[in-house]
Every structure is written in C-alpha cells, then in structure tokens.
C-alpha cells in the first residue's frame, strides 16, 4: 500500500508539472469558453431535478433498506454474476482511505488551471463549469444509487474484520454506480478536455490526459480492492463521470465559426442531450 501511495503521489505531481509547464508552450491562445443563462439555468435545473428524484427514490420503500442481520446471513455470492463475484472476497480499509484521498484531490485539481496563462483570464468560468460538472454528475450518481440499491460486495464477505453495523447501514446498499469513480472521472476528463482546448498545440496535452485517466483508473481499482464496489459499478461510474466531464465543457465552448459571442455549439449539444 505504501508503494501505491507513492505511485499516486508521483502521478499527481507529474500531472501538475505537465499542466503548469505546458501552459507556457506555444502562442497564447484565446479562452475557449464562456457562460450564459441559456446554459447555466438548464444545467443547474437538471442537476436539481436529479437530486430531487434521487431523494424521492432514497426514501421510498423504507422497508427494503437497510438490510437486517438475518437477511445478510442468507446472502449467497453465487447469486452474483461471474465478473463481479470476486469482489465479494475483498476488504481493505487502507485502499478505501487512499481512494478518498484521490477523489478529493481530483475534485480540486481542475482549479489549478486558473494558474495557467490562458486559464488565469477567466478563473470564474473554469470554477463555474467544474462546479456544474460535479453537481450534474453527483445528481445522476445519487439517482442511480437510490434506484438500484445494489448491495455492496463487503456485505457478502464473511471476514470478521468488517463491522456488522457497516453491513447493516444504508450506504451498504449504494453500490451502483461507484460514486468515487464517477466523481474522479468527471473531474479528470473535465480537466484534460478544458486543458486541451486552452492549449490545442501543446505537446503536454497527451501527458495531461495520461495522468488524468491514470488517476481516475487507480481510484476505480482501489474501490474494487477495498470491497466497496463490483467491476460493473466501476465501469458504470467511469462512463457516467467521463460523459459528464466531457459534456459540460462542450456546452460552454465558443463557436468561433458562428456570430461573435455565441455558444451555438454548446446549445446544440444541450438540445441533443435533453432530446435523447
């Protein structure tokens, strides 16, 4: 685990160096994003709706959550699909703790783009977009967790080190999708996407992408090693977070081919997403 911590520190340090040093390569680019009520209101409204629906689903049918100790003793790992079954043998509080550190670090990492030469022009826009990314991803994750109420792998694990109170808690039935993974992927894809748009000619873009995806992938693996999530939880969280991290910047991207001051490209994506 010490090696994992050192490796994670190296990954994040390399990412920060690439992010800041790469910003001084090439000609100074124009800031590629802008905010407008036509984007902010729908995003905030959609996020509030997702959280509202998640809260409604969370309190409905209270008799089905949490699991009783009697119910837990009847659970059989053989009922779980082959891909996910191995997760029921995992338990590592240290892996869970390290995944917390990575997730919170990833959640604030995009703010470092305000230190770059292009990002320093509009730090409030970067902060607003990232906040909306976390909000939209958080609402969707909460809704899915409340709807599926999937029992976490550690509940099936007979390891005596796992507290019975944890197995009988509400969070023990919030496995799908992985919130740590979705949050980290949302933040890291957001960071890499925005950085790539701010510095389209920079050679450091590939290193930023590599560092971001590695950080997010390691976070997902740690949630599996900790016994908190199945592989399918992690894959779903990665897909959800990556999509949200890509979507929000797309909604704010300035359409240089259209009339000055418009973000018609973003509105087109928003319309497609809502229609879908």
Task: List descriptors.
mainly alpha, Vanadium-containing Chloroperoxidase, domain 1, 12 helices
What is the number of helices? 12
Overall shape: it is: elongated
State which percent range the strand residues make up: under 5%
How far from one another are the termini?
A: 43 Å
Give, in order, the helices and strands. Answer: HHHHHHHHHHHH
Main beta sheet, described? none
Low-confidence stretches: 23-27, 268-276
Provide a brief overview of the structure.
By secondary structure, this protein is an all-alpha fold.
What does this protein structure show overall?
There is one protein chain. The chain is mostly helical and 276 residues long. The longest helix has 26 residues, at 123-148. It contains twelve helices and no strands. It has a domain at 87-276: Vanadium-containing Chloroperoxidase, domain 1 (Up-down Bundle), CATH 1.20.144. The N and C termini lie far apart (43 Å). α5 packs parallel to α9 and α9 packs antiparallel against α10.
């Amino acid at each position: 685990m010490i090696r994992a911590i050192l490796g994670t520190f190296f990954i994040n340090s390399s990412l920060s160096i690439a992010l800041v040093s790469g910003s001084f390569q090439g000609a100074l680019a124009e800031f590629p994003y802008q905010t407008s009520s036509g984007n902010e209101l729908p995003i905030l409204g959609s996020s509030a709706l997702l959280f509202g629906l998640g809260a409604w689903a969370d309190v409905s049918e209270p008799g089905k959550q949490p699991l009783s100790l009697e119910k837990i003793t009847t659970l059989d790992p053989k009922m779980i699909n082959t891909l996910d079954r191995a997760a029921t043998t995992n338990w590592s509080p240290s892996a869970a703790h390290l995944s917390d550190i990575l997730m919170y670090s990833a959640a604030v990492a995009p703010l470092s783009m305000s230190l770059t030469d292009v990002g320093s022009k509009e730090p409030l826009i970067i902060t607003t977009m990232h906040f909306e990314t976390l909000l939209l991803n958080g609402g969707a994750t909460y809704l899915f967790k409340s709807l599926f109420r999937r029992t976490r792998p550690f509940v099936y694990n007979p390891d005596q080190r796992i507290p019975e109170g944890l197995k009988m808690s509400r969070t023990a039935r919030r496995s799908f999708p992985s919130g740590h993974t979705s949050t980290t992927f949302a933040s890291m894809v957001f960071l890499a996407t925005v950085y790539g748009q701010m510095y389209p000619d920079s050679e450091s873009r590939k290193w930023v992408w590599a560092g971001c995806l590695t950080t997010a992938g390691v976070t997902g693996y740690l949630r599996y090693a900790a016994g908190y999530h199945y592989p399918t939880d992690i894959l779903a969280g990665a897909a959800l977070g990556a999509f949200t991290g890509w979507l929000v910047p797309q909604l704010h991207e300035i359409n240089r081919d259209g009339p000055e001051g418009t973000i018609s490209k973003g509105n087109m994506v928003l319309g497609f997403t809502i229609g879908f």
